Amino acid sequence: MKLRIQGDSLRLRVSPSEVKRLFASGRIEETIHFGCNQEARFTYALELKPQGGSISTRCLPQEVTVLVSAADARRWADGPEVGLYGESGLNHGLLQLAVEKDFACLDKSGAENIDTFPNPMHGAEC
């Protein structure tokens, strides 16, 4: 799973194998370690919630979790949609949220595109 943060926006890119793990366990996560100290780490996760509702976040010290409904995630995973999108209110504005399929890059080799979704632009002409 890839994480991109820019300003007040957070985007997760998810591979096909991660989508399978998400449905099998209800949660996937990655942790980045910044140093030798156990607390010098940050975890980001994607979690299914049984009830409906919009995409949201849960923030804990050293962790952020993006929560999506299981039904919305299933529709997205099985359909042509690129991602699930929403926003969460902040004291000073909105946090834009996105969970997207990790598509194969058109300018990389097959070996570099292992475990990606087929790019819908593959074979398209400008």
Descriptive notes:
By secondary structure, the protein is of the alpha/beta class. The protein has one domain: Gyrase A, domain 2 (2-Layer Sandwich), CATH 3.30.1360. It is about 15% helix and about 45% strand. The strands form 2 sheets. Strands 1-2-8-7 form a 4-stranded mixed beta sheet. The protein has a 4-stranded mixed beta sheet with strand order 3-4-6-5. The longest helix has 10 residues, at about 15-25. The model has no long low-confidence stretch (mean pLDDT about 85).
| Sequence of strands across the biggest β-sheet | 1-2-8-7
CATH topology: Gyrase A, domain 2
Number of strands: 8
Number of helices: 2
> Average pLDDT value?
87
Q: Report the uncertain regions.
A: none
List the helices and strands in order: EEHEEEEHEE
**Top-tier CATH class:** Alpha Beta
Question: How many domains?
Answer: 1
Strand content: 35-45%
Radius of gyration over all CA atoms, rounded: 16 Å
Distance between the termini: 30 Å
Q: Which sheet architecture does the biggest sheet show?
A: 4 strands, mixed
Structural class, from helix and strand content?
alpha/beta
The CATH architecture designation is 2-Layer Sandwich
Share in helix: 10-25%
Shape: globular
